[in-house]
Amino acid sequence: MEPIRIGTARQLFLDSHLVANARDLQRVLHPPVQCDPIIEIDRPWEIGGVAYAVLLEDAGLFRAWYRCTPEADTNSTARSLTAYVESDDGITWRKPSLGLVEFQGSTDNNIVVGDPDLVNFAPFKDEDAPSEARYKAIGRRGAVFTATSPDGLHWHKRPEPVQSEGPFDSHNIAFRDPWTGKYLMYARGIRTEGVPGHGATTSFKEGVRWIRRAESADFVDWSPLELIETADQTLEHLYTNACVPYERSEGLYLMFPSRFVDGRTPNPAWDYNGINDAVLMSSRDSKCFDRTFKEAWVRPGADPDQWHERSVYIMRGILDTAPNELSMYMSDHWRLPSNTIRRLSLRKDGFASLRAGYAGGEAVTRPLVCAGGQLRLNVSTSAVGSIRVEVQDPEGRPLPGLGLDDCAEIFADEIDRPVLWADDSALTAAAGRPVRLRFALCDADLYAFRFTGD
Prior knowledge:
Layout: E1 4-7, E2 11-12, E3 19-23, E4 26-29, E5 33-40, E6 50-58, E7 61-68, E8 81-87, E9 93-94, E10 111-113, E11 119-125, E12 135-140, E13 144-149, E14 156-157, E15 173-176, E16 183-191, E17 195-196, E18 208-216, E19 226-227, E20 234-235, E21 237-238, E22 244-245, E23 253-255, E24 258-261, E25 275-278, E26 281-283, E27 289-290, E28 313-314, E29 319-322, E30 325-332, E31 340-347, E32 352-356, E33 361-365, E34 368-370, E35 374-392, E36 413-418, H1 425-430, E37 434-452
Parallel strand pairs: 1-34, 17-20
Antiparallel strand pairs: 2-37, 3-33, 4-32, 5-31, 6-7, 7-8, 8-9, 8-10, 11-12, 12-13, 13-14, 15-16, 16-18, 18-19, 21-24, 22-23, 23-26, 24-25, 26-27, 28-30, 29-30, 30-31, 32-37, 33-37, 34-37, 35-36, 35-37
């Protein structure tokens, strides 16, 4: 078996890529905690709703661009605008008066884009680009257009579209891949092959709403859009994608599609069919996405105003807002005056874990080639729980000084806990050689691990 070279990259347990065998363990999906709204409808240009935000950290400032609709017809995007907010902490946000786009005779607003070709605007920062194009974005009408900006506020649209074979009626996303340097685009598509999932019908152009991918070396010339792949053949309507490169784990891409269940409408008096939840998908190559977790990552919940279509959308962006916390964002209550974009809080790297109960359980990895002389874990145990680690050769034999009995028992709840053995120097000697890791857990969750040079 060819060893997997992980170096010092952090490894999450979102799929079965690393684990060769496991006993008495569960792979557990961890939903985020829903927090207070960050954007509420309180301006005339937002009266029809707020949605489809992109959020990022930019030189110590948190910035976000979001769609707002000035009229109550929320089913029409023709009049949608893009507005801007910013924050010092990712929790409390402000709507600055920018003086850029006129609305009802005044520029005293936070609107940055009013071009109908750039609806559902999706910007990103391109750190390596010339200053005049440091920020880039895509938007859509009947086709996908691009735009560039020196500051994220003053935008220049390229007149010719870069993708014209629709459909594009979604929040299409683009970004520069931090590991390959290519520009990636994820857009609406149609999938027809497979078996409909629970509550789904093939009602969208004889298939289901799906996600397509394209790439570009220069943000001008793009490859044709092609459907992303999944090993699973279940047909479900994936309405959005919110794809991000998860930069805490080199080579990992995360998607948070809104799953649209068009065959269920809890309230017969509601004018539109369907309900939504949100799911989590992961990829190691940006093309094929793993669906280990088919259950919802975010449910509609106990709020009755969430139980209609398009009310659980995950926004694009993961922000580092506290030492142990990541913040994400979702829109809710679509088509209602109470519609908001609210914050989600989750543990760093805490999307999923390997979990053992009181009786304990174990997992052994495939052969790995690691770098560095210290192993660190993202782990949570109970007061009686624990975790220990053994380092083995590829045949499963413990390395001297790195056996399970040599490992100091860990009982803690920490993001980056070092593992200690009787002979820690033995781990340094194993760097660059294929090894297996044996994790022994009792009433504990293991979220991630990494090797460091410490």
